[in-house]
Amino acid sequence: MSDPHWPAPGQSPWPPPQPGAAPPPASPAPWDPPAGTTPSPVWPAPEPQGHGAPPAYGAPQPQFAPPPPYGPSGYPPGQPGPLGWAPPPKPGLLPLRPLDFGALMWAPFRALRRNPGPVFGSGLLVQLVVALTGAAAFIPFFVAAFSRVEYADAGSQDEIIAGAVGGSLLLLLVPIALGIVGTAFLQGIMVVEVASGTLGEKLRFGELWRRTAKRIWPLIGWTLVVGAIVLVAVLLLVGVIIAGSLLGPGGLVGAIVFVLIAALGLVVLGAWLSVKLSLVPSAIVLEHAGLGAAVSRSWRLTDGYFWRTFGVEFLVALILNLASQVITTPFSLIGGIVIGLVDPTGTGSGAVVMIIVYLATIAISLVIGAVTAVVQSALIAVIYLDLRMRKEGLDLELARHVELRDAGVPVGDPYLPPAAPAAPAAFGAPTSWT
Q1: pLDDT tens for residues 264-283?
Q2: Alpha-helical runs (H) found in 91-248
């Protein structure tokens, strides 16, 4: 169905004028106001609203100001958003958060660099005291023994030599005992240093030693227990070899094979126990725990983190061992070459040079031994703090402690163990409200 008024394409919508028809009316003239009146003002047409016509092609585009720079929280400077991330506080040596593997491994070296005087001085002093005491005990003894052998007759020389061997074995207990005390004391020093350094404190030599001396006897007791266990294991293996030798060649061979297999098993067991019980000195010093409580704390803290703890301790020990070999081996080679050049025939003319070379080698060994002992002791303390942050939220307690301390509020010891929760009352038991 079509519309009769709809024009075909190309036609005008109005019919053409007919011949003789009147023309269409003209447009009305504009309205003129009556005489004597004031015409109304003519308001301009409003400008069109919006963005306006787009610029012509090739015309310069409008420029807009760049947005303000944003900070790390995702908000403009001065306007931190409520969900912005901030790094954990780090008032001192360690950041107050659980440490990743790299931070855990390199933190002991930072402890040595942060407070080198008291830390390295303590390690060097311990090594020096042990070495000098051993030398003071052995040198006069051997000089006297060799003098007696030189002037004794042939029948008495064997007795003198046997007595010298027995005496040297007894004297060997002196540096061993001093080494036990020095190792225990150095472990305590590094525990105190790492714990105070984490809170932003930098202790002097005397204060570091005074704080450690309060827990020296439990530390010595623990070191004696470890040394006694190792000594008993060695004596058992030696006893097996002696018993096998009494049975003849076949028994000796069987005993040696048994000892080798048992030694491998003891090495594995010792590595496992050393990791599980490595945090005992830290618990003794920081938590004021006895031997039994410290052993229990170390065992619980390392649950679930054995391989991580073992890996960090093994890598740090490997790095220290390689570094010490790299440093000491060239000195030993150079010392041998110098002695050979000065006294190639071995007449004794290069005795002074030989003594100087040996003294330099001993001094370098003492320095490296001090650095090794300090770093390994600091590593144990860092692992202890990391495990308490992961398991007990120690990082939150330390952050609260630092905030209150900086605000001037009296604070206690943040390293004391968390209090055990109170046991719930028995069902049906009367409740006291007083």
Answers
A1: 999 999 899 999 999 999 99
A2: 101-114, 116-151, 154-171, 173-198, 205-213, 216-245
What are phi and psi for residue 105, nearest 5 degrees?
A: -80, -35
* pTM of the complete model beyond 0.85: no
Pairwise CA distance, residues 381 & 279, whole Å: 7
Say yes or no to pLDDT of 32 above 60.
no
| DSSP category for residue 344 | T
Instruction: Enter the tokens of residue 377.
Output: 């002791």
Q: How far is CA 224 from the centre of its chain?
A: 28
Nearest 5°: the CA angle 108, 176, 312 is 25
- Residue 13 domain-assigned? no
SS3 (DSSP) at 17: coil
Q: Which of 406, 387, 396, 332 is nearest to 364 (CA)?
A: 332
Range of the domain at 131: 101-214+305-405
Distance CA 87, CA 433 (A): 45
Q: Which of 384, 365, 323 is nearest to 193 (CA)?
A: 384
In a domain, 297, yes or no: no
Residue appearing with tokens 């005074």? 210
Distance CA 155, CA 28 (A): 159
d(CA 24, CA 12): 16
**Residue 131 within any structural domain of the chain:** yes
pLDDT at 273: 92
**Local structure of 339: helix, strand or coil:** helix
Distance between CA 135 and CA 138 in Å, rounded?
5
**Within a domain: residue 318?**
yes
What's the total number of domains in the chain?
A: 1
Q: Please state, in angstroms and rounded to a whole number, the distance separating the CA atoms of residues 380 and 278.
A: 7
